[in-house]
Every structure is written in C-alpha cells, then in structure tokens.
Design brief:
Layout (H helix, E strand, L loop, with lengths): L7 H17 L3 H17 L6 H20 L4 H35 L21 H16 L9 H8 L13 H8 L7 H33 L8 H33 L16 H7 L2 H15 L6 H19 L3 H20 L1 H4 L7 H19 L3 H12 L8 H4 L1 H22 L9 H18 L13
Helix pairs in contact: 1-2, 2-6, 3-4, 3-5, 3-6, 4-5, 6-7, 8-9, 8-18, 8-19, 9-15, 9-16, 9-18, 11-12, 12-13, 13-15, 15-16
C-alpha cells in the first residue's frame, strides 16, 4: 500500500521526519543521507523491491552526468546511454504489455497466432508508482549537463537526495536539478513565514483532495463503471464537468501538499497549477496545467525539434509530436494517445485561426474561458474512459440531447453540492483577479487565517471516501 498524503501512515511518517529533521539538517552528508533514506522508506512503503529500480536509474544518470562533463568529445555517447537506460526501464514497466497486445493484434490480422502479451514476465505487469515522474526528473539532469546548463554533483548522496526527495517523488511536480541541487547544497532553515506558507499549501491541498476530489469520485466512478441508474445528456455533462474538477483538485491538491512539505524543510518547488480553468486559450491552458510537465516537454521535446523556428507548418508538426508523446506519457492506452491528439488539434487550430483575434474578442472574457473549459472537458472524456468504445458512447450521449431521467440530482445531491462548491471557488478567484483593486492588501493575512480555519473544519467533517491520488497510476 502506497503511503499517500491523506493517510494515517503518512501523518506518522511526516511527524517523525520533521521531529528529527533539525538534528540532521546540519552537515551536507548527514542531511542528504537522512533525506535519501527517509525518501526510500516512503517509496518502499508501496513495494520495497522497486527501490532498486530508482537506485539503478539514479546510478546510471549520476555516472553518465560525470562522464558527460569529463569527456567532452564523447559526451553524446554517455547522453545516449542515459536516455537508453531510463527510457528502456520506462518502456519495460509501462509500455511492454501495450505494445505486446498491439503486436498480437497485428499478427492475428495476418492470420498468425502469437502470445507476446501472455508470455511477458510477471514483473512487467506491475507499474512502479511514480516511474514516469522520477524518470523525467533524472533525464533532465543529464540533458542539462550535456547542454552545459548544469554542472554535475560529485557527491552521490547529494544527487539521490534530489532525485528521491519524498514530497514530489511519486506524483510530481517534476523538479529540475538546476533548481534543486543548489538548494540542497546549503543548510536551509524554514522561517516562520515559510512555515505559515507551508501550512496554507498543505491545508488547501488536502481540502482540494479530500473535500472536493474525493466527494466527486462516487458520482463519476458509478457512471463510468456502469452502475448508474440514469442516462441523458444533462447527466453526462454533469459527470464530465465533475471529472474536470476532480482531476484538477486531485492533482493540484497533491502538488500543493508537496510544495507545502518542501516549505517546511526550507525549500521551494515551483508552482505546478495556476487555475488552468480560468484560461482564455488552449496555449494559456497548457501554461497553467501541470506546469512542470508541460515545460519539460517544451524544453526537452518541442524546442529541440525546432519549435516555431523552422517555419509555421513544421511548428504545428512539432506540436503534434509533443502532444502525442505527452498523451503516451500518461498511459499505455489508445485513449491517452487520442487525448493528446485532441489537444494537438486544438492547439494547432488555435495557432492557424487565431479565433480571438479574428473575432475581435479580448482575451479574458468569461465566455471565452467557458469555451476553453468546454473543449477541455470534452477531451477529458478520452482521458477518463477505459476504452475507445466507452469514450465514443459517452460522446454520443453528450450530444444526443436525450432528456435525463429524473431522480439523479436527488441521489447524487451531496456530490453535486461539492461540484457547485468547486465551481464557485474558481469563479471567486476569477472575479477576485478581475477586481483586484477592490481587495486591500492589509486584509490579506487575516483572510488567509479564516480560509485556513474553514478548510481545516471541512477537511475534518466533510472529507470524502479516501482515494489514492489519480496521478499515482502514471
């Protein structure tokens, strides 16, 4: 069982970690050793055997990083070794079954019977938690050294304290070595202001997860699992709207908690979500959604391919390659690839037509934001569906305009209340930003205290059924 942030196991682990932290946060090797060991305990709580996987991945990149810096003429060989080792590990555990099934299907169409999927070793069918996150994090280390943007650390404990740092280990944000190694290189004591910021981030993160996301899960899961008694377009539009907020609150909640825990250690993780459903374009959406991943693909895939430097049409081609890879990163299923393709189409269409400019619409208008939310919600159908067939059926129901059977609003009343609450929170933030001049700074801190207090009360009394974080599966 994975040690999730909203569990008693993690509460005990966290209390113990921060009680002992001041005693180990003195000398570099002592601090790095403590952080690495405790992070391995945190990760090994799920399955201790996969600790060796992250160690192997880390050792490859640590020594490849040193070799890249030392052997200038041969550095490309060591970069390829790093890329091969990490991507091979990711492919074996995450994609071997997917590609084996594809091969079986192709051979069966040619009249040949193969059993590639059935003959896969048992360990390849288990997906190590967080493998996509720490693999990308480790890869960025060697790539940045190769590009001359980072000097390698010569201390292996220093490297592993960065790679395995438990707050972000299993579900991000994907932190870069150039942002974190220098922070770990010196003793950092959290100030009272940092600790207060950490408390706010942790509380608001738990609120998003256990109050909003977990209370929406029953409504959504019963629909996708075919356990619902109701049908109709309105019902399914509410289901998909609920999922849009569930995945946002679930993942954003995790990122906030991770950032808050880092604050308590005196470290800073960059923002991973910035209210993406307030975006007025798809480009803006991707600058606000899962920022650490979208910037990773931008810096290590889109720009190296050529970005927009190689012409308009090649730029669109590179968008498609980047988004398809992003979809595949999320999961070994056709649905994720189509989800990436939908976003590639929307981004390409937006770049070609520039709809806001042609219509004379100023970005930020509420109905443009609602339109972006609408198309994003439709794309989430593929992300959440178990198969292409299920995604097709849901899209048909969304646009069939079939009257919804009466009664579902009463049965799911409690769940829908939290959906309304999630929407109201985003609208409040929208209008607060739009009319920022009406909010006085001197009221900010007292308002924060009230917001934290209300969130704590709701976490205690209105928490939903405990669920693992959605992005653990990636």
């Amino acid at each position: 069982m994975c040690m999730v942030f909203n569990s008693i196991d993690f509460l005990i682990f966290g209390i113990l970690f921060f009680i002992l932290w001041p005693f180990f946060n003195r000398k570099n090797n002592l601090r790095w050793s403590y952080l690495t060991v405790m992070s391995f305990i945190f990760y090994g709580w799920w399955d201790w055997r996969f600790i060796f996987l992250i160690i192997a991945s880390g050792l490859i990149d640590f020594y490849c990083g040193l070799a890249i810096a030392k052997y200038e003429k041969r550095k490309k060989i060591f970069l390829i070794l790093s890329l091969s080792g990490n991507l091979l590990s990711l492919s074996v555990f995450k994609y071997s079954a997917f590609f084996a099934n594809i091969a079986d299907d192709l051979f069966s169409r040619a009249g040949l019977v193969t059993h590639f999927a059935e003959n896969l070793p048992g360990f390849t069918l288990i997906l190590p938690v967080g493998i996509s996150f720490y693999t990308f994090q480790s890869l960025s280390y060697t790539i940045d050294i190769y590009r001359g943007r980072l000097r390698p650390t010569h201390n292996i404990l220093h490297f592993f304290s960065y790679l395995s740092m438990f707050p972000q280990l299993v579900a991000g944000p994907i932190i870069r070595a150039k942002d974190m190694l220098f922070q770990l290189a010196v003793q950092r004591k959290a100030s009272w202001l940092q600790k207060w910021d950490g408390i706010k981030l942790i509380v608001f993160g738990l609120f998003q997860k256990v109050v909003l996301a977990d209370n929406l899960s029953f409504f959504i899961d019963s629909a996708f699992e075919g356990k619902m008694l109701w049908t109709g377009s309105l019902y399914w539009w509410l289901v998909m709207t609920a999922f849009s907020f569930q995945i946002y609150c679930d993942f954003s909640g995790y990122s906030l908690i991770a950032r808050g825990l880092a604050k308590f250690m005196g470290y800073h993780f960059k923002m991973n979500f910035n209210h993406p459903y307030l975006s007025s374009s798809m480009k803006e959406f991707w600058s606000r959604w899962h920022i650490s991943l979208s910037t990773w693909f931008r810096d290590y895939v889109y720009i190296p391919l050529g970005g927009s430097r190689k012409g308009f049409y090649k730029g669109i081609l590179f968008i498609w390659i980047t988004m398809l890879l992003s979809g595949l990163w999320h999961g070994a299923n056709y649905t994720f690839i189509i989800w990436g393709a939908v976003h590639a189409f929307l981004l390409s269409f937006e770049r070609i037509t520039k709809p806001a400019k042609r219509l004379g619409i100023k970005p930020g208008k509420l109905f443009i934001i609602l339109f972006v939310f609408l198309v994003t919600t439709l794309a989430w159908v593929f992300f959440r569906a178990d198969s292409m067939g299920q995604a097709r059926d849901i899209l048909i129901r969304l646009f069939s305009f079939e009257k919804s059977t009466a009664g579902f609003s009463d049965y799911y009343f409690n769940n829908l209340v939290f959906l309304v609450l999630a929407v109201l929170i985003e609208l409040t933030i929208y209008f607060r930003r739009k009319y920022a001049h009406l909010f006085h700074y001197y009221k900010k801190h007292s308002l924060d205290v009230w917001m934290v207090a209300i969130a704590v009360v709701m976490i205690i009394f209105f928490r939903g059924e405990g669920k693992q974080f959605i992005y653990f599966q990636f």
